[in-house]
Amino acid sequence: MDHYAALAAPAGFVLNEGASELIRQLVSQLGIVSRRCASFREGAEEFRENVQNLLPIIQAIKYSGVELPEKRQVELDKLSRLLRDGVELTHKLLAYKRWHVYQNHRLWKQMEKIEKEISRFIQLLPVYIMADVQQMRAEMAARFDSCERSRQRIEQSLWDVRFGTGAYVAEAVRIQQEAEAEWGRGDGVIVAQENGKRIVREMLIGRDDHHIVGIHGIGGSGKTTLAREIIRDAKVKAHFGDRILFLTVSQSPNIDVLKARIMSFFMGCNGYASYDHLSRWTLQQSHPDEQPRLILLDDVWTSQALSQLYFRTTGCKTLVVSRFNFDTFYTLKYEMEILSEGDSMALFCQSAFGQRAIPPGFNETLVKQVVNECEGLPLALKVIGASLRDKEEKYWEGAKARLSKGEPISDTHRCLLSERMGISINYLQPNVRECFLDLGAFPEDMKIPLDMLVRIWVETRGIDEEEAYAIVAELSNKNLLTLVKDARAGDSYSSYSEISITQHDILRDLAIQLSNQGEINARKRLLMPRRERELPGDWDRNSNRPFQAQIVSVHTEKMEEMDWQQMDFPKAKVLIINFSAEDYFLPPFIDNMMNLRALIVINHGTTNAVLRNFSVFGNLANLRSLWLEKICVPQLTDTTIPLRKMKKICLVLCKINNSLGKSAVDLPQIFPGLVDLTIDHCDDLFELPSGMCGLSRVRNLSITNCHSLQKLPADLDRLSNLEILRVYACPNLKSLPLSVCELSSLKYLDISQCVNLTQLPEGISRLTSLEKIDMRECPQVMHLPMSFRSMKSLRNVICDEEVAWGWKEVAKAVPNLNIKIAEKCFTLDWLDE
């Protein structure tokens, strides 16, 4: 008997051969099990080691922050439980001795089951990976689609900035209008104090024996705001109707222009009429209808100016707004009161926090200290409050410390108010700060066209239009400028050309003060704060050395050749010339401004001025932008030197006198790179010359307020790159040429206020890129071409209610068409521009 049989047979027993064989088989199996138990321990140790390496990876995937599909998360949770169960079994198995055969075997069977589950998951892993890859591809495709939609929205916002709701500027306008509405509700906190409005209103409409009423007070105390609230008051409007004239006089007034405006107002003439062309009717006599009238003279600085602008006539009241008390003129007056502590806090909090109270948890003591330093002046409260918006407390501490160092603000400390508000400028980004300082280059109280300002910044600051519009919005949100919307635009303005910018004169003074720091030849800007008869003396005294200014702003009266000094501006990129004269000799130093990129020439006189020394343009090889206002445009000839880099030309209130229509003039040769042409308020433009159609690179053509324009060129389709066509407020235009239907790149068409336009061409559906059309106040266009229904690119329409029904029918066939009904606007405030 072998040893297994001997071990198996108890003493005294003799086994038969069959039983002995069974014992041998049993012992053999026990040996296998025993050896397997030894291998169980080795396998368990290996299993534990592998699981311990795998578990952290699984946990890292689960809690990586990446959002997994729900199904995948469940599977990973199940795998984690299996691995933990396996580790627990290995601990148990290793705890048993080898002779605990049953327990080891049972545990191993459980481990085998777990192992199979893990193996199944691992076998399916490639499938999971493929599924996840597919899901990732789908998600990435969705994200790319989202990015594409975002890109399209950005492009649309950039496009809107040029001709529509302008993402940044529109938002800034909306915020400003909401703020104005918020403060005009009459619920206890009103900047233009209700008490003051009531008192002045009673002075104007309650007493017929008082012809001149004054509002006076320190700068920044809200005088102009109060005056504007008064003329918007329902009772005042009911009394005077639309017979209200608002004039800004300023420190350097053009008395002749203001007189002409007053005479035009009395005689019912156009606001642009010349004083010389009006009848010499004596204003002292009664006007024909003797209806009540109100003339508001804002920002009057001297009694001399007031004496020349005050006309006592029957039924006419004059409201004077000034820092000074002209007692000898006033029959009644109102002195501005500073805001109460509560009103000051509410206005400040509205600017700093967007609400009328200090937010919970903010340092109330610190806020009160800053508010107290503003001394109840609305302008200081708004500007300083806005500058601290979203700032950390340490910025507030710094502002409070700097404000507390100043002297009390009073009539004799106007510069101290500027210094206090100058603190807010320190919190601006460097590029935004430079753009704010550029605003000092414009005359006081001027409505600065948004397009003009953006062009200056693009040429001098190395930024694109999108960033320029964002900076405008930033300065508006900081209350450092005011956006003014053309009253004719109603609630749906359609173009950046309907937006202009104004600035409080204290803020303008601040910009000039900061720009004038340092040695004159090293300044970035060389500015004339107000209109003078000649150039400043320190310019002349330092003209022996080059001036490093990038922006040069001149504001004079009539200048002859001998009135100019020879000066060198090697870095000048922008030259702004403001003057008041019938003829004007352009400065000879333009000839040496080799880097000049933008030239702005504005005549503030009563008649269009003749420019002399126009030959200086011959050396302006880098000139890109030209703005001429109230100028007699010089004749172009075939010998005119080409301006190859010229991109934009804007002619406003100019006498064109057929200067662009000579058959011998090759406009594409003179302006080969022109992309933007604007002609506005040019009353002698009867026909757009056909030669303009050769300017094939033009993308924006704007012909607005040209009341004599009768037709457009028949070959308009030669402007193959034209994207924007504005023919706005041209009442004598009766039809559009058929060639307009061939402008395949056209995206925006504005025919608003073309009151005699009778129809749109039937072939307009061929404008396959057209996205927006503005046809407000086109009363004779009552029927729309059926072809509009096939224009799938059209997204926005602005129209009157009378024609909206036709567009609603079009909208059934054109998906996503947005129809905006324009509000009626009957105001003549735009004549005050």
Instruction: Report the strand count.
Output: 24
**Count of separate DSSP helical elements:** 22
- Give me the secondary-structure category: alpha/beta
Largest sheet: number of strands, sense, barrel closure: 13 strands, parallel
Strand order of the largest sheet: 9-10-11-13-15-17-18-19-20-21-22-23-24
Percent of residues in beta strands?
5-15%
Overall spatial form: globular
CA distance, first residue to last residue: 128 Å
Secondary structure topology:
Blueprint: H1 3-8, H2 17-62, H3 70-95, H4 101-163, H5 167-183, H6 194-205, E1 212-216, H7 223-232, H8 234-240, E2 244-248, H9 255-267, E3 293-300, H10 303-309, E4 316-322, E5 332-335, H11 341-353, H12 364-373, H13 378-387, H14 393-404, H15 414-425, H16 430-438, E6 448-449, H17 450-461, H18 465-477, E7 482-485, E8 499-502, H19 505-515, E9 525-527, H20 537-541, E10 551-556, E11 574-579, E12 583-585, E13 598-603, E14 609-612, E15 625-629, E16 631-632, E17 648-652, H21 667-670, E18 676-680, E19 700-704, E20 724-728, E21 748-750, E22 772-774, E23 796-799, H22 801-811, E24 818-821
Parallel strand pairs: 1-4, 1-5, 2-3, 3-4, 9-10, 10-11, 11-13, 12-14, 13-15, 14-16, 15-17, 17-18, 18-19, 19-20, 20-21, 21-22, 22-23, 23-24
Antiparallel strand pairs: 6-8, 7-8
Helix pairs in contact: 2-3, 2-4, 3-4, 4-5, 5-18, 6-7, 11-13, 12-14, 13-15, 15-19, 17-18
What's the gist of this structure?
39% of the residues lie in helices and 13% in strands.
Q: Which properties best describe this structure?
A:
22 helices; 13% strand; 24 strands; globular; 833 residues; 13-stranded parallel β-sheet; disordered N terminus; 39% helix; alpha/beta; 5-stranded parallel β-sheet
